[in-house]
Design a protein that fits this description.
Strand order of the largest sheet: 3-4-5-6-2-1-7
Number of strands: 12
CATH superfamily of the largest domain: P-loop containing nucleotide triphosphate hydrolases
Radius of gyration: 29 Å
Order of helices and strands: EEHEEEEHEHHHHHEHEEHEEHHHH
Oligomer: single chain
Bound molecules: guanosine-5'-triphosphate, magnesium ion
Shape: flat
Number of domains: 3
Distance between the termini: 28 Å
CATH class of the largest domain: Alpha Beta
CATH architecture of the largest domain: 3-Layer(aba) Sandwich
CATH topology of the largest domain: Rossmann fold
Number of helices: 13
């Protein structure tokens, strides 16, 4: 197994057919980018781009010129073009990029001009897929490209960038090398009939345990760091009239939810995304959970609220200072509930001193509430993990650990070395699915179908 490194200039890639796509979002915008990659990119560029100097003769430089339709000769736009010869391009193939005016029409006309030269429309993620297949990126790094494009907060973007740097495979590769070492030791026992004694087996067991511990740490990261990937779901709950919608509005910074002195105002739940310390927080306002709902609608609202309590990462349970009521429903894990006193401006010395208090009306105590929520979610501002597996990678890690515990059992049960080696081989295959060293059509589709066209 060798680490995937950047290709050397001398490496020659066989190039796939020519693909083209608009790489920027469609809609009003100053600049649009149309991208071409594959065999014949230089030819297609020279057919449709007219300038004093050919970008093909000045690789990796921006050249100003006119983009014309190759069949009609109609001038479509004044553009900048750049040519990146294989293998030193994003995809590893000959690539051309056209920087044109943005909007709904010009990029599309330019794309059509290239399709007229014989290029075909790229599939979703096909540029990144080619970069991966040509060894420019590991599979985990290719997935990081999609994560970066989809990032909705600074925290998600920082994590995706660290994945793009290869943070995940940097943690997985040493484990893969360790497992290959174990396989080699087992093969030596088989091939050279080395002694298969207790000393040998306990030395293998110690090494296997170390590798399993390493991988278990990585497997467990997701559970405690998921919020950096997926954002934090913060649910505001309490009895009717507790001040949930007022807190929701205060945190969102505008009047988004209806507020009224009449209990039972909120029925449907309301969601809004806000950013705290660069972290995406999905804020949810819910219907009040009273003793007995007055009608069918209130009952359904309460059902929604209970569902939201289940799905929350953190729940703020509000006790109004002027009418303290019951706590959260039983069964809700205490570790995710922050009980707080609302309407602190009406306190009259009645609020419980152990609970944090705030007033949505005056803004008093809101900063403290935010700090407490972040603490409960285990978030230390500025300290976030470098690698958090996505769901696909997590599944592969779980599978790998399952195979390794089978190998461990086989080792403890004094099974023949080839049985143990088989399990370790399966564990290696699971890790290889994270880095992309083990590939299948299904795996490629699972990863790249989630991309957008042009990436
Ligand atoms: N003085 C004071 N009044 C508040 C405060 N927060 C909410 N209220 C009042 O309390 C009443 C209920 O507020 P809401 O925010 O609608 O309460 P809710 O929990 O969303 O109520 P339901 O949706 O009916 O369950 C309104 O009259 C608000 O003006 C506060 O911090 N101070
Ligand atoms: Mg409400």
């Amino acid at each position: 197994m060798s680490a995937l490194g950047p290709l050397q200039e001398a490496d020659c890639l066989s190039q796939a057919d020519l693909i083209a796509a608009i790489s920027t979002a469609i809609g009003p915008g100053a600049v649009g980018i149309v991208r071409l990659s594959g065999q014949g990119a230089a030819w297609a560029l020279e057919k449709a781009f007219v300038s004093q100097t050919s970008p093909v003769s000045r690789p990796r430089s921006m050249v100003f010129g006119k983009l014309v339709h190759p069949a009609t000769g109609a001038i479509l736009d004044h553009v900048l073009a750049a040519f990146f010869p294989s293998p030193c391009s994003f995809t590893g193939e000959d690539t051309a990029e056209i920087f044109c005016h943005g909007g709904h029409t010009v990029p599309r006309l330019i794309l059509e001009a290239f399709l007229a030269t014989g290029a075909r429309l790229a599939n979703p993620g096909e540029f990144t897929q080619r970069a991966f297949l040509n060894g420019r990126l590991g599979l985990d790094q290719a997935e990081a490209v999609a994560e970066l494009v989809a990032a909705q907060s600074e925290a998600e973007a920082a994590l995706a960038t660290s994945h793009l740097e290869g943070a995940l495979s940097h943690r997985i590769r040493p484990a893969m090398e360790g497992l290959l070492g174990l396989k080699a030791e087992l093969a030596a026992i088989l091939d050279f009939e080395e002694d298969w004694d207790e000393a040998k087996s306990s030395s293998l067991l110690a090494k296997l345990d170390d590798l399993m511990a390493e991988l278990t740490v990585l497997r467990n990261i997701r559970a405690c760091s998921r919020v950096f990937r997926d954002g934090l779901r913060l649910v505001l709950a309490g009895r009717p009239n507790a001040g949930k919608s007022s807190l929701f509005n205060a945190l969102v910074g505008r009047d988004r939810a209806l507020v009224s002195p009449r209990p039972g105002t909120t029925r449907d739940f309301l969601e809004a995304a806000i950013s705290w310390e660069g972290l995406r927080v999905e804020l949810v306002d819910t219907a009040g959970l009273g003793d007995c709902p007055e009608d069918e609608l209130e009952a359904r609202g309460q059902e929604f609220a209970r569902q939201e309590l289940e799905e929350a990462d953190v729940v703020i349970w509000l006790h109004p200072a002027n009418a303290p009521g019951a706590g959260p429903p039983p069964g809700l894990p205490a570790a995710k509930v922050l009980e707080a006193t609302s309407k602190a401006d009406l306190a009259d010395g009645r609020s419980s001193p152990e609970r944090p208090s705030f007033s949505a009306l005056t803004g008093q105590g809101l900063d403290n509430l935010k700090t407490l929520v972040l603490e409960m979610a285990g978030i230390v501002p500025g300290r976030q993990p470098e690698a958090v597996p996505n769901l696909r990678q997590q599944k592969a890690l779980e599978e790998c650990l399952k195979c390794l515990s089978l190998a461990r059992q086989a080792l403890l049960g004094c099974q023949p070395p080839d049985i143990i080696s088989l399990e370790i081989g399966d564990a290696l295959d699971s890790l290889g699915q994270i880095t992309g060293q083990i590939l299948s059509e299904d795996l490629l589709a699972e990863v790249f179908d989630r991309f957008c066209v042009g990436k």
